[in-house]
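ok so for the tutorial part 2 we go from a plain amino acid sequence to predicted structure tokens. step 1 is just haveing the sequence, like this:
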Amino acid sequence: MELIGEGIREAFRLIFTGDGQVYAIAARSLAVSGVATAIGLTIGSLLGLVLGTRSFVGRNLVLSLVNTGMALPPVVVGLFVFMVLVRDGPLGRLHLLFTPAAMVLAQAIIVTPIVTALTAAAIQGLHPRLRLQILALGASRWQWAWLMFKEARLPLLAAVMLGFGAAIHEVGASLMVGGNIKDETRVLTTATVLETQKGNFETAIALSVILLLVMYAVNLALTLIQQRRRPL
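step 2 — the prediction. this is what the tokens look like for a chain of 232 residues:
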């Protein structure tokens, strides 16, 4: 318990003394995971809309694959991205391995199935006649899509929270494709692993506390947006 207490005190010391290194690591975590979540949201919401409104041969198979993708092991994703970006890989000439861009790609792959599956479920939960009513009023395809997302906004925001959480707390893929390079690809999770391996448990606990605070702050903001009441 004393070790945990020291770690929590160290966390607040690092926060309130303005430790530049910790601030940079936290900002990098937010940037990488934020961009990855935005990519996953864009792709996943559109795929989820299609899966939630269209009927086609093999749809259940695709849904099963998407639902399975919600539990993708990060190390498997990391291995896949590593093989794609390694020098002899299909995208090796882009020299993205061990850069923040590689971490964004890996995290986006983790986020996309989560958003896709939850979006499809949210859209399927809407009234079956809603789509026809919107189109009957003369809405374009993009207006129809926007209104469908608007009606399903509560579960969609929950999908964003879950996707962002899966991205920012992920460590396996980030280590494999980012390399945990100081001032370049080191984020809160990989920094925590490094400090633990070095035996700096107080610092590791402090970084973990900061990670939890960052996640809480982002989820609080999204929850306030989600629970905001519409004017009567």
